[in-house]
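Second attempt. The first submission of alanine dehydrogenase had a stray character pasted in from the spreadsheet, which I only caught after the job came back as garbage. Lesson logged: always re-copy from the clean sequence file. Corrected sequence (404 aa) follows.
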Amino acid sequence: MDINPLETEQIGIQTLEKRLMKSESNISLKIGVPKEVSNDERRICLTPGGASVLIANGHEVFIEQDAGAEANFTDQEFADAGAEIAFSIDEVYKKSDMIVKVAPPSESELELLEQDQTLLSALHLGNTTEEFLDLLINKNITAIGFEFIKGDDKEFPIVRMMHEITGSMSVQIGAHYLEKTEGGQGIMLGGISGIPPATVVILGAGITAEYAARTALGYGAQVFVMDNDLARLRHLENALDRRIITATANYQYLSSALQYADVVIGAAVFEGERAPCLVTEPMVASMKPGSVIVDTVIDQGGCIATSSATTHSTPTFMAHDVIHYCVPNIPSNVARTATYALNNVIVPYLLAIGDAGGIRECLWTNTALRNGTYVYKKHLTKKSLSKIFDMPYREIEMLIASQI
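This time the job returned cleanly.
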């Protein structure tokens, strides 16, 4: 097969379509995709190709007008795929039995949720409130959170995809802000013949860190990865053919590495917990003027003492002559790529719900969606949320088995 490099963006969804077009759904879902109202959120969950797959399998898709504009998908493309363009957000919610969106519903959107609807979105634990959960419970919403979806392989597919994008983007961002016009040192990340490359220090050794390291190596940078989990460091060394330098993230090594760092990428995080603060303010003060910090875990508190959340419209600030980039939602800046990534994970789940004959039947058989559910049949179903908000919860397996 001849592949035009200018069309490689489409290959993933074409492959998805070929595999999924054979499905014959037992029920027809009415799937609503509202335009995102959260600040700086440019992604959506479906591409026109994804919508066409769902429609070919007997489902209906309602897309709010201009929902895909920020990701460069036009209403005409969705209409050509067979989706119905809704001219208001109210129309999307009223016509749909399932709402699929990126950010959690805002306060105004919560009021639009209809009784017994299914909500598939991120949860954003740091901003979740007891009132938000109570409203979902009172409206008998089946709520599935991106952060909780975990398959039999123990992977979090949506989280992983976004972390891969974040890791790759963090190096691209660091390289950009090293330029003199952006306030940086005026150096190239990879160097050239006779001139050594820049030094990139990555804090953490998870998925974000791995993709940051891969990208930095691709640029030709010298890469240090620091973590206190030796097993992760070994894995990363092997995965990257020992082209990185690893060290435990203790005070001595961190202090030394940061003095030479041109770019520091904060990617240290513990699942379901606040990010550990590994870098102190004196360490930041010791860094070279014009160096760059990209704190990718700022949405979980950040792992650098001087970090403070910024926005895509005002992405950086200076502290101790060091550029800080602390945007919580990095993948949104590559909204088209991120939308394809979300689409390729979410469409199979939507088809699985239809094939199973409904959300209840699908939750019984689909481990990933069952793990992702945090509100079901007027009950909180996540022990972690129960502890945070001091609310009662029920095991989802019990609720499904009892046919409540």
